[in-house]
Amino acid sequence: MTISITIREANLKNSGIDLSRHMSFFPIDSHGGRNKDYLGKTITLIFSGINEDIQTDIDETKKVFRSARGHLRRFYEHFNYSVGDVVYITKITDRVYKISNTKPDK
Predict the structure, then answer these.
(1) Element (H, E) at 91
(2) Which residues contact 46 (CB under 8 A, 6 or more apart)?
(3) Taking the CB of residue 76, how many other CB atoms lie within 10 A of it?
């Protein structure tokens, strides 16, 4: 299963990705609170193109991956992202997700 998210200017500026419409795509226990005192269980994000992966939870108040800013910044720079481009997130297993700039083959 894959979701697609259109990138906005704020996503590029803050090296984030807006998960607000897709929170149910991720395990409910990966949703943490407003700061690191309230971490959810981690999931693994694999970033295509930069060949990096990270363990992170999701900040449920901000609807973003808590620990992925640096990875997302390098991902956006590597693929020369601009406003309106699309990020694809594919569920590999219950706790592993691939972040890509192209829609995966079925």
Answers:
(1) strand 86-93
(2) 52, 53, 92, 96, 97, 98, 99
(3) 21
> What single letter denotes the amino acid at residue 48?
S
Instruction: Give the C-alpha separation, 21 to 32, whole Å.
Output: 17
pLDDT of residue 103: 86
Look up residue 36 and give its two tokens. 């690191």
Token pair recorded at residue 85 = 């481009």
Q: Which domains does the chain have, with CATH numbers?
A: 2-100 (2.40.330.30)
Q: Distance between CA atoms of 106 and 98, rounded to whole angstroms? A: 14
What pLDDT shows up at residue 71? Answer: 94
Sorting pLDDT into bands at 50, 70 and 90, what band is 38? confident
Average the pLDDT over 47-51 and give the result.
Answer: 92
